[in-house]
Amino acid sequence: MKKRENSVESKFFCDSMLGKLSRELRILGVDAECKRGQGGMRAYRLARAQGRILLTRNTRLRELPGVFFIRSQVLSEQLAEVKQQFGISPRKEQTLTRCLECNVTLEKITREQARPSVPFFIYQIHHDFRRCPKCKRVYWPGSHTRNMERRVSGPRGNQR
Prior knowledge:
The protein is of the alpha/beta class. It is 32% helix and 14% strand. Strand 6 and strand 7 form a beta hairpin. The longest helix is centred in the middle third of the chain and has 12 residues, at 75-86. InterPro entries: Mut7-C_RNAse_dom.
């Protein structure tokens, strides 16, 4: 597959072997769908129907159009492969804008809206909250978000 530029606009479908990779891509703000049990030709058909690029480790699919074959079994190297192939470079304004579970774009909410969903001490010290409109999970900045950003922003993707 030819190298692409301006990748945050690229939409991906990670087959069931690459669930952790989809989560790492979401941290970067990349649209990366992944459904459990969706592998092989089923994943390929879903990706094509949704206009997505299929990311897979399935060697039988590697020559099909719209497929990017992931060579490595190591998560940090997988992320590095995708970042390099599709020109993904971490941008602060895109980082942590998608639900890590649902892949839906997060909505900004007020502190009062977040209050019932977060621990009291988090409510006391934070003012910036986002919520997934699908699963209602609430996100806020903190050391955990800085650690995620650092992990996915390095040249090899993550440093686990």
